[in-house]
Fold this protein.
Amino acid sequence: MTFQNTAPDRRAELKARYRQAILDAADALIRERGKPQFSVDELAERADVSRRTVFNHFASLDDVIMTTCTRMLSATVDEFRAATASSPAGDGSSEGLFDEIATALRNIDLPPVVAYLAGILTAEGENGRSQHGISDVFTRTTEQFSTEMAARTNAIDEFEVAILLSSVMNGIAVVSGHWLARTGGALDAVSRTVWNELLDRLIVTIRTGYAPSH
Amino acid sequence: MTFQNTAPDRRAELKARYRQAILDAADALIRERGKPQFSVDELAERADVSRRTVFNHFASLDDVIMTTCTRMLSATVDEFRAATASSPAGDGSSEGLFDEIATALRNIDLPPVVAYLAGILTAEGENGRSQHGISDVFTRTTEQFSTEMAARTNAIDEFEVAILLSSVMNGIAVVSGHWLARTGGALDAVSRTVWNELLDRLIVTIRTGYAPSH
DNA sequence: TGCACTTTGTGCGTCGTTGCACTTAGTGTA
DNA sequence: TACACTAAGTGCAACGACGCACAAAGTGCA
């Protein structure tokens, strides 16, 4: 038997590696500059890849950036999932689920993510044409996570979960906006305090509802 | 003008990088095991390269190993060259040149190189067919270095330099043999002392000649 | 000796990166 | 407006790594 030394498909692995290099390079550049401000040439050089290869893997520069966002959101969702999965998943009531989510939200370090996405959103508005489509990415990720969450917490209604999660996500977006307006996306101790404060208010509001007296 | 981001020829650079990876892997494996005892599959995996690629760059496993030796010898020669070049090149006499070389020999850390080559030579003898051709590499490197040395030290006869250098190289080979027999190629303090002692005797012998009383 | 198995080295087709010319479009400048 | 320049994105051919089948030779074992 003539056996090969490598895993089944080295070619596919190499391809994935090149793709990964491009994404990593884009990610690094965005973090360094606070927003996606670089040419394809720059990106290719940073990724140690030919300029042409960038367009072999991605339809456009915006595509690269959008994919970078997706990755970042996915990582955050993973973190969130792990945080909620570790708790005993409540008693099956929607109150139990809410507490779970609230706790996870407090435990996860969201400001860096918000700052990252904010940089891209800002750049999106700077020139005329609509770019990146980061809102789409955000929405899609939310929906995906919502259905997954519903499947995991088998006790309660799927609709209940969907409404709760979308409510939370929407709230996070509002919190992010305010936080950015007040701190400029800085990541120091003060801005963290601001973030925690806003997050607390969000959680309280969602818990008690908008018209609790009725 | 449409300009490319990379250096003139990225393709050539990649090719060289693959070749380098193979040589580095071979070098590492030889050092780890004391001798070239590994299959092409192993080498390829270590180099993070397809098995086929090894044979695209080298005619055989022996070729890889031989090239590794050449590299190692080249590095040593570079070190030697640097050591002799730093001194004022003597007064042009062959005595001055000899002192230069003797000093350089004492300053360079040769035992690791000797141990490295010894491992390959040992493996060469273990099975029937002649392998590697490391002696050829050694001889060729010596000659090349000799002519180069002659060109640099312009004052004295080229023949003089050739005879001196080949004498020294031959002596080093003898010293190496004795050193290996007495220390087994170990690289501890004791074996270093043995090396220095043998080297001193070599230098004295060459300096004074084999029949100084005549 | 016969047989199974491993490893070396080769031939050849496939695939993905690369290089390059080219089109399109945005921007600055005279 | 005209012109130069920069950058995005595409089409296409070439190059080299890769996968695989295969022959040849070595090795261990019954």
In short: Chain A touches chain B at residues 3-6, 10, 41-42, 44-45, 50-51 (CB under 8 Å).
